[in-house]
Amino acid sequence: MNRFVILCLLLLLSIGCGGESTSKPNGSVSKTDAAAAAEKLLNAIGNDQPATSSSSESRDDSITQLESDRQVGQSDPPKPQVNPDQEADPRDDGEGALPVQIAGPRQQAEENPVDLERVKANGIRVLDSDHVQLFTDLPESIDLSDLPKVLDLAIPQWCEYFEVDSEEVKDWKIRACVIKDRARFDKAGLIPKLLPEFKHGYSYGNTVFLFEQPSEYYRRHLLLHEGTHNFMLTFLDGGGPPWYMEGLAELLGTHRWVDEKLTLNIVPGSRDDVPYWGRVKIVKDDVAQNQGRMLEDVMRYGSNAHLDVRPYGWCWAATAMLENDPRFSKAFRDRISHVSESNEVFSLGLIQALGDDWHLARQQWQWFVLNMDYGFDLKRESIVSKPTSSLDPDGDSVTIDLSVDRGWQSTGLQLAAGQKVTITATGDFVIAREVRDGEELEWPCTADGVTLRYHNKRPLGELIAAVDNPTEDGLTGLVNMVSVGSSNEVHTEGAGVLYLRVNDHPAELHDNRGTLSVVITP
Questions:
Q1: Cβ atoms 494, 417 nearer than 8 A
Q2: Are 146 and 136 in contact (CB under 8 A)?
Q3: 25 pLDDT higher than 50
Q4: Nearest to 383 by CA among 357, 349, 416
Q5: Using an 8 Å Cβ cutoff, are 461 and 450 in contact?
Q6: How far is the C-alpha of 485 from the C-alpha of 465, rounded, in Å?
Q7: CA 228, CA 220: separation in Å to the nearest integer?
Q8: Are 207 and 112 in contact (CB under 8 A)?
């Protein structure tokens, strides 16, 4: 009997029971845990309200802004406050910029003829390339002229990502209308009369309609977003559930365009790189207002959720994490061959494929969205796990080497509730690099950090600790970090695994170098 069948049977047995799930002390996921998580998702798919835990002893299941400096393991961190000194930047605003809506039978759309003389008579220009015929009434510009080329360059990258033979797409062509004055396109017969009014964009069969956007970047983004939809529906015969379909379109629409070279599937390094995209801002704002969503809540978005822009930010975040974290990327990529499945089967299949890593995905997700920022290094911030064993209060000290260019790293030590340990750290490392007068300079650091810069109100490079049990529902214990420095005593109110890291911005781990020698003494 395969694991999926076992999971389904466990779901049937557990429905209506309402009992607590039990977690193993060594951090592995029991089938009861997986079944409970899957049942909660299954029962709620299509309902856009957050799922709730059935366990009376589970942790708070909402995501709140990270800011806590109390004892390790202490629950209920204070409610966050939006920083009043942080000015809004319109380039960071995705509030009003919805990706296109999708509707209409493809065959009917393809049969909608185009009268080129009528089109030109209405002041509409035609730009042709291998894979797109673009109609626009916007003034000539280099960026506008580049749009067909952008889509052509995206095709090989989509083929590689979705494992589609390039021969299959050689004759594929879509129609794109980039609109300033809709009346011109109506008179030209380019917009079918049966189409409803739309504010930003609409996709009908093989045609995408886009109103002009506030930035050249976002105009390209919407074209690539819709191109991804068209590609998937044409060559994969499906798009998957809303969170996956829209998330992938966001993932593969987020791009870099430099010197006529296109790179898809990027985590933007700054808001200046992606003006008016706003997905990072959506997640940060929701978290700051205690309206964050757990990973399973994102998977439960229904078909109408994306009439609002905010789900696009959360779906991008979900697909970005699952795609870029080495622990989850294979299971996530394997979903490509399942896009024709029902929403429930597709999402439950991903949970089943992740298996024991499902709880780790929930743990990673919380750390990602609580610290959401441009340039977030999803690979280096991937939480390092290892087999765990209990730390005997009367036993010997344990020494580990801690990498300073990675995020949270498990010590492999399971601490009991109320257990105290002394942590000491030695060694020198590099916490940052800068170029000054044309010369690269390294910032030397110890476990006490450097006070020239701070991150999360702590010295940059300071050794910090947290205790977490990834198998528990609710808010991760990683938010309750404590300063260690070169030496400190740490204790926990609840049982869990001891994690360590050096304090650094999630976009700046790449320029760190070296290790710390850390001794944990019971």
A1: yes
A2: no
A3: no
A4: 357
A5: yes
A6: 10
A7: 12
A8: yes
- The pLDDT assigned to 40 comes to 53
Is residue 249 pLDDT above 80, yes or no?
Answer: yes
Predicted local distance difference test score (pLDDT) of residue 430:
98
DSSP string, 468-491: E-TTSSSS-GGGS-EE-TTEEEEE
Q: How would you classify the pairing of strands 174-179 and 132-136?
A: parallel
How many Å is the maximal CA-CA distance in the chain?
88
Residue 71 has what pLDDT?
38
Q: Do 478 and 362 contact (CB within 8 A), yes or no?
A: no
Chain mean pLDDT for the chain: 84
Per-residue pLDDT reduced to its tens digit, 126-184: 999 999 999 999 999 988 999 999 999 999 999 999 999 999 999 999 999 999 999 99
Alpha helices in 209-309 (DSSP H): 216-235, 242-253, 279-288, 295-299
pLDDT at 110: 56
Instruction: Give me the amino acid identity at 516.
Output: L
In the chain, % of residues over pLDDT 90: 69
> Do 239 and 315 meet the contact criterion of CB atoms below 8 Å apart?
no
Sign of CA dihedral 453, 459, 460, 461: positive
Fold held by 82-381: Neutral Protease; domain 2 (1.10.390)
pLDDT of residue 483: 98
Domain ranges of the chain: 82-381, 389-521
DSSP state of 513: B
At 184, give phi and psi (nearest 5°).
-60, -40
Spell out the SS3 assignment of 343-396: HHHHHHHHHHHHHHHHHHHHHHHHHHHHCCCCCCCCCCCCCECCCCEECCCCCC
At residue 98 the predicted structure's pLDDT band, cuts being 50, 70 and 90, is: low
* 175 φ/ψ angles, rounded to the nearest 5 degrees: -110, 135
pTM above 0.90, yes or no: no
Q: Do domains 82-381 and 389-521 have the same CATH topology?
A: no
The residues, ordered by sequence, that sit 6+ positions from 60 with a Cβ below 8 Å of its Cβ are 75, 76, 474, 475
Q: Which residue has the tokens 């050096």?
A: 502
CB atoms within 10 A of CB 477: 26
Backbone phi, psi, residue 3, to 5°: -65, -35
* Residue 434: Cβ-neighbour burial (10 angstroms; 0-12, 13-18, 19+): exposed
Cβ atoms of 503 and 449 within 8 Å: the answer is yes
| Surface-to-core class of residue 283, CB atoms within 10 Å of its CB (0-12 exposed, 13-18 middle, 19+ buried) | buried
Query: Could you tell me which CATH number the domain at 389-521 has?
Result: 2.60.120.430
- Judged against a pLDDT cut of 50, whether residue 464 lies above it is answered with yes
Question: Ramachandran region of residue 240, left (φ > 0), alpha (ψ -120 to 50) or beta?
Answer: left
318-337: pLDDT as tens digits: 999 999 999 999 999 999 99
